[in-house]
Amino acid sequence: MDITPIVSAGIALIGAIITTFVVPYIKTKKSAAEIEKLEHIASTAVHAAQQIFDKEQKEEKKQYALAYLEKKGYKLNIDAASAIIEAEVHKMKMELKKGA
């Protein structure tokens, strides 16, 4: 039995939840300029990870993006950093769907 559609739906749901609840919480803790810069850096990290790693290497992609954020000076806790990365992945997937 192929569970790919179920996994994809689960990932989309998690991305939507993170985008809806976690990212707004983080935004209350930072200024608009800081948030925009952080989102740009996270977007760059996510896009780079997509180019560097294979489709199946999800954990490696996430670790790369987390390390990239830290290298750029963002010392976020793992949950906050993961939430931002997941939100950027969700945005990227939505942009790809619009373009398809």
What are its keywords?
mainly alpha, 100 residues, globular
Summary, kept brief:
With 100 residues, the protein is mostly helical. It contains 4 helices and no strands. The protein is 83% helix and 0% strand.
| Annotation, overall tally of beta strands | 0
Briefly note the structural class of the backbone: mainly alpha
User: Could you give a short account of the major beta sheet?
Assistant: none
Estimate the global geometry from the Cα principal axes. globular
The percentage helix is over 70%
Unreliable stretches (pLDDT < 50, length at least 5) are none
How much of the residues is beta strand, in percent? under 5%
Distance between termini? Answer: 27 Å
Number of helices: 4
What sequence of helices (H) and strands (E) makes up the elements?
HHHH
Mean pLDDT: 81
Question: What is the CA-based Rg, rounded?
Answer: 14 Å
- The multimeric state of the shown protein is single chain
What does this structure look like?
The protein is an all-alpha fold and 100 residues long. 83% of the residues lie in helices and 0% in strands. The chain is built from 4 helices and no strands. Helix 1 crosses helix 4, helix 2 crosses helix 3 (58-71) and helix 2 (32-52) crosses helix 4. The mean pLDDT is 81.
Q: Which secondary structure elements does this structure contain, and how are they paired or packed?
A:
Elements: H1 4-29, H2 32-52, H3 58-71, H4 78-99
Helix pairs in contact: 1-4, 2-3, 2-4, 3-4
